Amino acid sequence: MPELPEVETVTRSIAPLVGRRILGAEFRCLRILRGGHPDRMARAIEGRKISGVKRYGKFILLALEGGGYLLVHLGMTGRLLLGGAPGKHTHAILTLSRGVLLYDDSRQFGCLQYSRDFPERVAKLGPEPLEVSFEDFAAALRRRKTRIKALLLNQAFLRGIGNIYADEALFRGGIHPLALASRIRGERARRLYNAISAVLTEAIAAGGSSISDYVDAEGRKGFFQFSHRVYQRTGQPCVNCGASIRRVLVAQRSSHFCPKCQTRS
DNA sequence: ATCGGTACCTGCACGC
DNA sequence: TGCGTGCAGGTACCGA
Questions:
Q1: Is there a catalytic annotation at residue A58?
Q2: What is the mean pLDDT of chain A?
Q3: CATH 1.10.8.50 domain residues, chain A
Q4: Cys-Cys crosslink for A209: which of A61, A192, A225, A230, Cβ 3.0 to 4.6 Å?
């Protein structure tokens, strides 16, 4: 489900958690703790007040008063829900001084992690796509030999772009997903940079894309899926030229593009 | 140091 | 109805 716009939407929807205290924590699934011990993790966060909620790429970081962080990654199907009844795939239940926070994740690709210091996994991410300068972006492109689609998915390059927004940004920028990153320069680099900003900004304003079951912490769906121009539109006409949208695998991920509007060089 | 491929999990849509 | 297949917003890890 969740790329930068969806995680941003979820993060905003749990902003009211700031100031509340974690009274109890129950972890039901070992896999999503990534080797962490459920009881030790519960003890580390119980009794602590949440002092901040912030997004870094696709991660959500809950800062705890007195130091320490609860790191959340939603993987493909993770959800943070304020209230509601625990279900079949509810893996964590945080009882708060007001309300309850559930972590739900059918595919279990997400994770919850406690960290005493600022987490290494977050520190090594690339810059935010909406904050990076064009000069830094263009310089980083030039250094990479890989295909642009694979690079956009690489969180060490930019943090937060996933399969939907990579495809949508490449379409708007007129760049083929198999184009070599190092060969995207000048005006093409500028177009891609602007396309990334526009797509992410519009998607955040729309509350993200709800493809199957994504909702924010209040259960609200996003509606940017209605604005997708190529993602999962294989065989449908391009909104610009009418050509049939094609699908190709890049780095093992489906990539949707217009064969006429998007060029390799 | 960078890569591409694979594994990890569940659920759904599809064709037979 | 059921079964097999392929696909799905994610990252981590492996060997080349």
A1: yes
A2: 96
A3: 134-257
A4: A225
pLDDT interval class at A1 (50, 70, 90): low
- The distance (Å) linking the CA of A211 with the C1' of C13 is 29
Does at least one atom of strand C sit less than 7 Å from the CB of A262?
no
3-state SS, residue A145 = coil
* pLDDT over 90, % of chain A: 95
Is 0.90 surpassed by the pTM of this model? yes
Q: What is the pLDDT of residues A40-54, one digit of tens each?
A: 999 999 999 999 999
Q: In terms of CATH, what superfamily is A4-123? A: MutM-like, N-terminal (3.20.190.10)
A209 touches strand C (CB under 7 A): yes
- Which nucleotide lies at the shortest CA–C1' distance from A75? C10
Residue nearest to nucleotide B12 (CA to C1'): A212
Which residue in the list A2, A119, A129, A177 is annotated as catalytic? Answer: A2
The answer on pLDDT for A196 being more than 80 is yes
Q: Where does CATH 3.20.190.10 sit in chain A?
A: 4-123
Summary count for chain A: helices (H), strands (E)? 7, 10
A229 φ/ψ angles, rounded to the nearest 5 degrees: -100, -25
A2 is a catalytic site residue? yes
Is residue A35 predicted with pLDDT exceeding 80?
A: no
Angle between helices A4-13 and A186-205 (to 10 degrees): 30
DSSP string, A46-63: TTPBEEEEEEETTEEEEE
> Is residue A183's beta carbon less than 7 angstroms from any atom in nucleic acid strand B?
no
CA atoms within 13 A on the CB side of A60: 31
